[in-house]
């Protein structure tokens, strides 16, 4: 069984102060304690490729993981800066898993608010699964959210894969039969005005119709609440972090998980969430 987590690590190694260094060590402990096979990380330094890659390498070293491609781990680093707010993202995996050389795909630039990065990982007995990390536009992104959903679907749904992301809004996703799972705060808004749009429905519909599904919805589980615990949080508890699976991966998903511990709540304003999947199942 393979565990894939997604984690917004809140400015990991972006600010070098004593308090931030202490918090970064908590982020590292959260990952070590969770012991994922693969993890998608948002909010690395995004000032340049060098800064993003250096932070990913540091995090990999601190958690006993890898982030360089190839069976010998000497290839390029799976990290990239984004387009806004100097925020980057990357992928890490445990020793024994390796990324196919030449498989890394990076999508960034004027069409993307942040970025999307993916690699094909050899996870178990020759099974290859594409894992991706994405950071969606915030509410200020307005109509860019459904626009990016289209780009993301084009990038992901042609392969067997999973994308872990901070979706930045409490989207509702449909199950494989097109039925929507409601949760207690049905904050739908079909309009694109960034001042009033709490959760733009069109972005979720675009992803679901293209074949990217939330495994929690498919398995009949509630979506994990990942934000709202941070002292400065003003929007309340929301399920804005999740892993989506392509149709070819859905039957491989066995469970969803959220890492909700006191250390996780002190380490970041987001909680890690993920899935357990059987790579031999699809």
Automatic annotation (TrEMBL):
One family name in Pfam for this protein: Exo_endo_phos
Domain annotation Endonuclease/exonuclease/phosphatase: ranges: 18-270
Source taxon at top rank: Bacteria
Record-level Gene Ontology MF annotations: catalytic activity
InterPro entries the record matches: Endo/exonu/phosph_ase_sf, Endo/exonuclease/phosphatase
Protein name: Endonuclease/exonuclease/phosphatase domain-containing protein
Natural source organism: Phytohabitans rumicis
């Amino acid at each position: 069984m393979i565990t894939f987590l997604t984690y917004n690590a809140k400015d990991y190694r972006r600010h070098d102060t004593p308090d931030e260094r202490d918090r970064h060590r908590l982020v590292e402990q959260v990952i070590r304690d969770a012991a994922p096979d693969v993890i998608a990380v948002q909010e690395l330094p995004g000032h340049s490729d060098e800064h993003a890659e250096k932070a990913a390498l540091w995090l990999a070293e601190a958690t006993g993981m890898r982030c360089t491609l190839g069976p010998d781990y000497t290839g390029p680093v799976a990290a990239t800066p984004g387009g806004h707010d100097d925020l980057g993202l990357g992928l890490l995996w445990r020793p024994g898993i390796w990324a196919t050389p030449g498989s890394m795909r990076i999508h960034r630039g004027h069409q993307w608010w942040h970025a999307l990065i993916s690699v094909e990982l050899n996870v178990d007995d020759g099974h290859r699964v594409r894992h991706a990390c994405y950071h969606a536009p915030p509410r200020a992104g307005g109509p860019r959210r459904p626009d990016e959903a289209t780009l993301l679907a084009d990038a992901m749904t042609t392969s067997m894969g999973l994308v872990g992301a901070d979706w930045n809004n409490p989207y509702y996703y449909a199950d494989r039969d097109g039925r929507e799972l409601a949760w207690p705060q049905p904050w739908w808004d079909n309009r694109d005005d960034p001042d009033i749009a709490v959760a733009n429905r069109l972005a979720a519909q675009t992803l679901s119709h293209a074949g990217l599904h939330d495994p929690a919805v498919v398995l009949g589980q509630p979506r994990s609440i990942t934000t709202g615990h941070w002292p400065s949080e003003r929007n309340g508890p929301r399920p804005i972090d999740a892993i989506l699976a392509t149709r070819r991966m859905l039957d491989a998903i066995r469970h969803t998980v959220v890492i909700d511990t006191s250390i996780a709540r002190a380490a970041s304003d987001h909680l890690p969430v993920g899935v357990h999947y059987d790579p031999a199942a699809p």
